[in-house]
Amino acid sequence: MAHLLDNQVAVITGSGRGIGAAAAKLFAQEGAKVVVTDLDAGVSDQVAEEIKASGSEALSFPGDVTDPEFPDQILKAAVEAFGKINILVNNAGYTWDSMLHKMTDDQWRAMLDVHNTAPFRLIRAATPYMRDVAKADMEAGKPLENRCIINISSTSGLHGNIGQANYATAKLGLVGLTKTVAKEWGAFGIRCNAVAFGYMDTRLTRPKESGEKISVQGKEVDLGIPEKLRGGFEHLIPLRRGGTAEEAAGGILLMASSYASYISGHTLEVTGGMGI
Ligand SMILES: NC(=O)c1ccc[n+]([C@@H]2O[C@H](COP(=O)([O-])OP(=O)(O)OC[C@H]3O[C@@H](n4cnc5c(N)ncnc54)[C@H](O)[C@@H]3O)[C@@H](O)[C@H]2O)c1
């Protein structure tokens, strides 16, 4: 039986848990060979093992996307393992919230580093494996393969969000990067889209009081949304509920598949209708 991503190789950052992990599993189910990567080696390895146990191919290559050496290393490893790269999903990220008047330069910089600089460097590092390969194929008169980049944005970027001056700025910056890549690499048949999520059930949106933290570059950052701000959010969503990580992954698959072959530079909102 044919699958949506047969013969495709995908690199998905932050795929050790949450939306990225759901996307890695869905992509594998749809025939892709997946490079799983996360800051946390344990969860990265675990997702890759699960994919392999289900009969698909995966490579775990953990690391910090903000490390300047990381983009070249992971993309080289992907090509060594699977021969090529069709799909790059810039998904790794987190929140480091506080009201603007209390926000530190570290908080500001950390969000731009992980949501803007890292995707920029990863896309730039993909030049030989995506842009240059496509250009050579074109010049040789070969049919172009499905090649695309998907950047994970947020409704916080599109509409702003209290406590997220840093995150909102970065997530909208990613839309500008997406449109620029769509314009520069479209000439080589490479699509670039963003997927902006609303309220998806992961540790980023669970109660802050549950004590989830991310440990990144020597600092511990509290994750989640304070209980008092979470109450009643369903009423802002036409579908009256938050989404699951699997539903988020569905939006990413939609943009990755060849059914989206004429969609580029778009920001797909996966929000249950929130913000319309
Ligand atoms: N959950 C939501 O409602 C929501 C809404 C809008 C956007 N998003 C975005 O979706 C993406 C996935 O988030 P999620 O909700 O699945 O959260 P999550 O915390 O469940 O998963 C994110 C993963 O990214 C990894 N990560 C974070 N910083 C990293 C780094 N520097 N290097 C490598 N890996 C790193 C984490 O270890 C984690 O496993 C993020 O970009 C987030 O901003 C989520």
* Rg (C-alpha, Å): 18 Å
CATH superfamily, called what? NAD(P)-binding Rossmann-like Domain
**Known CATH architecture:** 3-Layer(aba) Sandwich
Largest sheet: 7 strands, parallel
SS-derived structural category: alpha/beta
Hetero groups = nicotinamide-adenine-dinucleotide
CATH class: Alpha Beta
| Total helical elements | 9
pLDDT < 50 stretches: none
Strand content: 15-25%
Order of helices and strands: EHEHEHEHHEHHEEEHHE
- Count of individual domains: 1
Write down the oligomeric state. single chain
Overall mean pLDDT: 97
Distance between the termini: 38 Å
DSSP helix fraction: 25-40%
Number of strands: 9
Strands across the major sheet, in which order? 3-2-1-4-5-6-9
The CATH topology label is Rossmann fold
Shape: globular
